[in-house]
Every structure is written in C-alpha cells, then in structure tokens.
Amino acid sequence: MDNRPIGLMDSGLGGLSVVKKVIAKMPHEDTIFWGDQAHMPYGDRQQDEIISLARTGLNFLLSQNVKVVIFACNTMTAQAMPTLQAETDRQIIGVIQSGALLAAKKTRNLKVGVIATTATVESQDYTKEIHYRNQKIKVVEQATPKLAPLVEANEPAAVRQAIVSESLQPLVGADFDSLVLGCTHYPFIAKEIQAAVGPQVQLIDPADQVAQYTFNVLKRDGLLAQRQTAGQHQYFTTGQAASFSTMARAWLDQPDLTAQHLD
Ligand code: DGL
C-alpha cells in the first residue's frame, strides 16, 4: 500500500483527458498534474527539445514524491520515454501501447486510422505497436498539427468544426472502422472529430486503457493507496493558471480546482 500521488504530465490541457480516466478508475488515489503550456505544442519540436522539456516535468514530479509517472502525452511517449525512463527507477507509463492495444482489439475490418502530432506520426510508433499485435491490420497515420493548439485556444464551436474537418480531409476515402485519438488533446474535440469522419467510425481514446494498465501496475506492485476518502488532486501549469483552471474545472467537473503557475 502506498499513499504517494500518481504523477501525470503533458504539454498542456490534453493530459487532463488521461487525468479524468485515472480518477474515475482509481477515485482514492491522489494525483499531481504538470502541464507545460508555455512550451506547447511539443508536436512541432525536434526530439532533443522534447526530451529536455519533458525532463523538466519529470524532475518536478519526482521532486513531489510521486509513486509512478504517466506520460499523458503521445509526443513525449514517442520521442522522450526511452531516454527518460533510463534516468529514473520510478516507472513511467506511456499512452501509445495502450492506444495500439485498443485499436488492434476493436477494429473489425482490420483498418485503423491514427491522428496525432507531427512528431508522433514521424515516430511511426502506432503502426509498429499495432503491427506488433496484428500484422494484418492496415494503419494510416495522419499528422494533424493544428488540433492540439485549437484545443488550447478554446475557439467557438463553428471554428473548431471547420479546422477539424480541414485537418481530417486527407483521410476522406480511407475506409478504416476505427480512428485512434493519438494526441491526448483530441478527446476535447471528439464531437467535432466524430462529425468529420462519420458515425460508422469508432473513436479510440487510449486513456481508457492507460487507466486500466496503471491500476494493474499499482496492484501488482502493492502500490495502490489505502484510504476510504476521495483522493486529492493538484494541478501545475507553466502557462496562465487562471485560464488553465477555468478549462480544467469544466472538463474534470471539479468546481474548486485551482491550478498553480510554475516557472
Ligand atoms: N497532448 C500531446 C500529445 O498527446 C501533444 C500536443 C502538443 O504539444 O503538440 O501528443
């Protein structure tokens, strides 16, 4: 039993889509979230920059005595996880293996689409991980670099739909039955994405499986919290604490949430 918090990190708000699933799955766990809004989007950056930025977040979370770290970011998982896992003995959990597992399990026509940042698509990690489970699945990966900044900008619905539809245009005609939301920001615009691809495509959010996997790891290692009360949740951003708090409160349905700014 271990009452230390679970650490989660992302370049910005997107990681909250994972926080939400983790809290739903493990309501007695404390969490600490670090979002690097001052440096997002990560997906347009080079690998060495992504590693160096993610290292800052990782070291912050380790300084808060977390028991496990979730890279609630596909870009960090693809570009920084192998390097940074070698620098700590605290387990780091990524999101791509979980997304790939769900996609391989759920596709019926053995055709899967993946939308993600440029850095994630360049890694081809989704294709590799899906093929690791089933070589027969055809995977189409499409970079959609405008979408994570769109979520952060909190644009009105009509603007959101226009940018989402334009970003998904290259996928028209690809007849996959499952589309992986390969960036943790995308669940925030799932409605617009679903409208763009049509109701016949099922959207796959890796976060469902990430929460389950994290639970399994904590249970296996005897690290689940032992308390009857609800966990406490802390949020840190390198961006504007006020606007982060507003969006996080609404997304997580935590009316008292107040994020803190970190330099
Ligand atoms: N949320 C991040 C991901 O899952 C990245 C967004 C970004 O900073 O480009 O890839």
Distance between the termini: 33 Å
> Radius of gyration, rounded?
17 Å
CATH class of the largest domain: Alpha Beta
Mean pLDDT: 97
**Order of adjacent strands in the largest pleated sheet:** 4-3-1-2-9-10
Amount of beta strand: 15-25%
The number of helical segments is 12
Count of individual domains: 2
Shape: globular
The CATH level-2 architecture of the largest domain is identified as 3-Layer(aba) Sandwich
The helix content, as a percent range, equals 40-55%
Bound molecules: D-glutamic acid
Helix-strand string: EHEHEHHEHEHHEHHEHEHEHE
Written overview of the protein:
The chain contains twelve helices and ten strands. It is of the alpha/beta class and 263 residues long. It has two domains: 6-94 and 208-261, Rossmann fold, CATH 3.40.50.1860; 96-206, Rossmann fold. The strands form two sheets. A six-stranded parallel sheet has the order 4-3-1-2-9-10, with helices on both faces. Strands 6-5-7-8 form a four-stranded parallel sheet. The longest helix has 17 residues, at 47-63. The two termini are 33 Å apart. The relative contact order is 0.21. The mean pLDDT is 97. The site of D-glutamic acid (DGL) has 16 residues, from α3.
Structure summary:
With 263 residues, the chain is of the alpha/beta class. It has 12 helices and 10 strands.
